[in-house]
Amino acid sequence: MEVQQLRYFITVIESGSLSRAAQSLHMSQPALSQQMRALEQSLHTILLERSNRGIRPTSSGQALYKDAFRLVREFDQLSTSVAAATDVRGVVSVGVTTGAASHLAAPLVRWTLQNHPGIRLELFESMSGYLRELFENGRMDFAISYDDYVEDSETSAGGQGMVEAGGSTTARDVSAAVASLLETGQDVTWIPLFEEEMFAFGPLCSAYAHNGIVRLEDIADLPMVAPGLRSNLRSLVDRAFRRRALNPRIVADLESLPTMLDIARSGSAFAILPLSADKAGTVPHFHVAGDALRRRAVLNISKSRATSPSALKAILEGLLMVTQDAIEQGESTGYMPLSTAFELD
């Protein structure tokens, strides 16, 4: 088994097709097929099921897929392990939801370049459900998701290590929080980051707003676009309407927050979104009466998958720092300190 074969294997699984994988790898399909057969022969097992509908992993292939990322990254890490002991080097992967990426991704890259230029970030931006799948498959060290994913978890750090959000937070505060968190014996853990309010976006809601606030009872019959049923945001929205015995008039399910925002901007329908979805602030938005349309963001952490513990620790520190900055800019980001619930009447 060769490391390059593992790289090919990962691409085949993610592409779902030998032809698409070969195109992505800039090689011929017969050459790629030969490499996959050689990998199967070296492991004495069948890794791929081939059919007219494409390629899918066997149970052995799925097991290899979960470990392949770690094996490839450990191999890549060999070149950095001989660096000076004072340098923090390594590859750290971070999954960020589409909304959070608009306020956290660029600051995290900037913080990393300024403080630890030897660390290479792998940033994944997607919907919360897909990030969950990647995290569980060992594809990333950190993943930001929302409370529904972890609220029943027994591996919660219970907020251990979090800095207080009320005042000025120093680098020393964050370093102490990180050290405390990483001392836990759990391989996979999570910590709460911030709370986020959802708003009704779109000029369609303007006629029903009073002092910048709308009621779900008043807008339930308006055309609405919403995320797909697997989305955490969709669950939150459905729950809010259900608590009021309302049936929203959802005219389209979408997996793209920017597209939902564009439709809301057009006035064809409204959307319930976090403030972070409209970083430019170009679409009218309104508070929704009550406190049901709030969610808590959490940071999922996998210590066991890290190939460089020092790099993992550094990026955890950076994530907490940039998150704290985003909370302090709450008027523009929509991020709020934990446990600041309020109700709009």
From TrEMBL:
<dbReference type="InterPro" id="IPR036390">
    <property type="entry name" value="WH_DNA-bd_sf"/>
</dbReference>
<comment type="similarity">
    <text>Belongs to the LysR transcriptional regulatory family.</text>
</comment>
<keyword id="KW-0805">Transcription regulation</keyword>
<dbReference type="InterPro" id="IPR000847">
    <property type="entry name" value="LysR_HTH_N"/>
</dbReference>
<dbReference type="Pfam" id="PF03466">
    <property type="entry name" value="LysR_substrate"/>
</dbReference>
<dbReference type="GO" id="GO:0003700">
    <property type="term" value="F:DNA-binding transcription factor activity"/>
</dbReference>
<keyword id="KW-0238">DNA-binding</keyword>
<keyword id="KW-0010">Activator</keyword>
<dbReference type="GO" id="GO:0003677">
    <property type="term" value="F:DNA binding"/>
</dbReference>
<dbReference type="GO" id="GO:2000142">
    <property type="term" value="P:regulation of DNA-templated transcription initiation"/>
</dbReference>
<dbReference type="Pfam" id="PF00126">
    <property type="entry name" value="HTH_1"/>
</dbReference>
<dbReference type="InterPro" id="IPR036388">
    <property type="entry name" value="WH-like_DNA-bd_sf"/>
</dbReference>
<keyword id="KW-0804">Transcription</keyword>
<feature type="domain" description="HTH lysR-type">
    <location>
        <begin position="1"/>
        <end position="58"/>
    </location>
</feature>
<protein>
    <submittedName>
        <fullName>LysR family transcriptional regulator, nitrogen assimilation regulatory protein</fullName>
    </submittedName>
</protein>
<dbReference type="InterPro" id="IPR005119">
    <property type="entry name" value="LysR_subst-bd"/>
</dbReference>
